[in-house]
Amino acid sequence: MVPIPRVGPGAEFEPLRIGRTERVFVLTGAGVSAESGVRTFRDAGGAGFAGDGRRPQGGASIGLWYEHRIEDVATAKGFERDPRMVWRFYSERRRQLPSVKPNPAHQALARLAQEREVFLCTQNVDDLHERAGSPEVVHMHGELLRSRCHSCERPSFVDAAGYFEEPPRCRCGGLLRPHVVWFGEIPFHLERIFAALDKCDLFLCVGSSGAVHPAAGFVSHLRHTGRARCIYLGLERPDNAYAFDECRLGKAGELLPGLVDLR
Ligand SMILES: [Zn+2]
Predict the structure, then answer these.
(1) 214 has pLDDT over 50
(2) Cα separation of 78 and 137, whole Å?
(3) Among this protein's residues, is 68 annotated catalytic?
(4) Among the options 68, 106, 139, 141, which is catalytic?
């Protein structure tokens, strides 16, 4: 028997009690960044980006964002075809990042980490969790403010620069690329992430559409172990709603600050 999830407006739910010793795994997706005004591919016709992208239906050509197609700016092939254009795209996003501010959802999660053991995993590539004060953020889809070499094994490094003319090069001579996970690439930190999932008592999924794997599969993974409570929180019913105990619908910035009862 699979229990039926309770799905409804977040305001109709009781605050969530989290015991002192409970371990909380938080997954955040594009919905959280969108409430700060970070634009995503989804805004422009069903295809997400900000780390929580839905793959477009029927081929990769409908995901327009700022006049760009996903296959041009979010795949290794697109980068190899036109690194200058791809760098212009990410440089523009880097330039806009300081004008975007953390919202009450980011702040509530930072406060939660002061009170409880929290593993914060995000699909977002922006730095809003860090700026809200979250002590440790696992960026499974990489970080906009880091670069790495497209050729050699040199580790990624902090890089907030904009490259609007020539694409930057590594000291090995290869091209540098943004340190973000593109479509067709394997997300980062999966070993740590699954180890934390296996230990958690509460899985809190905030603003993640449930359409992008592997993140969309975290809740099903937990269903098999059968131990953690699984709560979704976000504006829209996720594609994987069936796998949660509860789906609390609403803006994360409005629901999260009052969500948790830490008594
Ligand atoms: Zn290199």
Answers:
(1) yes
(2) 28
(3) no
(4) 141
> Could you confirm whether domain 7-164+179-261 is CATH 1.25.40.10?
no
Four-point Cα dihedral 136, 53, 142, 224, nearest 10: 60
- Cα distances from 258 to residues 109, 155, 261, 262, in angstroms, run 11, 40, 8, 10
pLDDT of 128 reads 97
What pTM value is reported for the model? 0.89
CA distance 170 to 218: 35
Give yes or no for a contact between 73 and 49, defined as CB atoms under 8 angstroms apart: no
Domain boundaries, the chain: 7-164+179-261
Instruction: Lay out the sheet containing 117-122: strands in order across.
Output: 6-9, 246-249, 229-234, 202-206, 23-28, 117-122, 137-139
Tell me which residue of 85, 79, 41 sits closest to 63, measured CA to CA.
Answer: 41
Pairwise pLDDT comparison (200 vs 71), residue with the higher score = 200
Q: Which residue has the tokens 């999924």?
A: 205
| Mean residue pLDDT across the chain | 87
Q: Measured in angstroms, how far is the CA atom of residue 139 from the centroid of ligand 1?
A: 22
* Surrounding residues of ion ligand 1, Cβ less than 5 A: 149, 151-152, 154, 170, 172, 174
Q: Are strands 157-158 and 142-149 parallel, antiparallel or unpaired?
A: antiparallel
Look at residue 217 and tell me whether its pLDDT is greater than 70.
yes
Which is nearest to 180 in space by CA: 61, 97, 58, 64? 97
